[in-house]
What we know:
It comes from Taklimakanibacter albus. This is Sigma-70 family RNA polymerase sigma factor. By secondary structure, this protein is mainly alpha-helical. The protein folds into two domains: 12-108, Rna Polymerase Sigma Factor, Chain: A, CATH 1.10.1740; 141-196, Orthogonal Bundle (Arc Repressor Mutant, subunit A), CATH 1.10.10.10. It is 77% helix and 0% strand. The protein has eight helices and no strands.
Amino acid sequence: xTIVLTFMPFAVGIMDNDLRQLLAQVxxxxxxxxxxxxxxxxxxxxxxxxRILPRAELAEDALQETFMRIWQRxxxxxxxxxxxxxxxxTIARNQAIDLKRRSxxxxxxxxxxxxxxxxxxxxxxxxxxxxxxxxxxxxxCMQGLPNERQQLVLLxxxxxxxxxxLAERFKRPVTTIKxxxxxxxxxxxxxxxxxx
Length: 196
């Protein structure tokens, strides 16, 4: 069985003229033209964004921001500088890169905050007695976490597994492991604070 793939070239002349007209209408605040522009180019722009941001939810956020920028900047489009599609693709690419950078910075800040929260401070002998009660409360709070998150917390903070090791063991992305650990610690802190 032979599969034949047909390639429909992007009709540059016709499509560019249509896109120019749509952008001109969008620049005048025409919401119908904006909706049509979205229908015509969103798939293509999502593909560009998806190469930079493989996680669908981040790519969708970047696409939304891209169209907000297109709406805001349609009046600044200059056809002597770029084709309409190239102009919009540049906006999409820049939004994806910005979102990727912001996400990486946010994750780094969260990881740093998490590391500071969990800094090892050796207790003095007087506080050891009080820790027995704290450990009992911690055990009760741990029971409130889903089983997988209990395992993550114990492996990470009791046995010293790295996030990468946990990601491999649980077959999850490292960013998901970081998020689950952070949420688990927040839940434990809230539980412990409520128990006092």
